[in-house]
Amino acid sequence: FQAVFERLSDPLRAVLAGQLAQLEALLRLVDEPVISQRGDMAGLGGLTRHGDLSNILQSELLLRTEAPLEFLRRVAEAETLYHEAEYLDDGSKRVLRVMISVGPGTLGHGRIFCLAALFFLARIAHLRGQELHWCFLPNATGPVWFDEISVNTVKRFLKTASFREMSLDDAQAARDIWQD
User: Fold this and answer.
1) What is the per-residue pLDDT across 150-170, written as a single tens digit (0 to 9) for each?
2) In 3D, which of 124, 49, 48, 60 has the Cα closest to residue 86?
């Protein structure tokens, strides 16, 4: 993103740096998403705090009989431990998809925060080995998915505005186009 940052004005770069610093504090809280089925099951790996009940640790099940209220609290607060299922890699590339509203609610400061969040999500995708595909809605010409963050795509995003917020129909249309 260095090329994009170099083209931004000094005040915008300073604001984005502050936003990114605040988002960076959240990076450790962002867990890898749970993948339901990815290739053939290879076995059980490490421990995780989310998973299928069939992979719950036996010690957690013991809590269910010995201290049922503590078991329920641990489940409700996502403190329960599970064996992590491992799958053989099927060779597919995972994609993080982001839809950003360019409606009246994101004008001004909101647009700058959306840009900072986009950079942050691009970093998360990079750390996970994923691709980032993003679009902004509503768009008069229909949804357009971008697979990179470049100077031109950022300019296009910052210049676009809509008189209405993104609707579920806009999001569905974008999803349909992405799947084609």
Assistant:
1) 988 988 888 888 888 888 888
2) 48
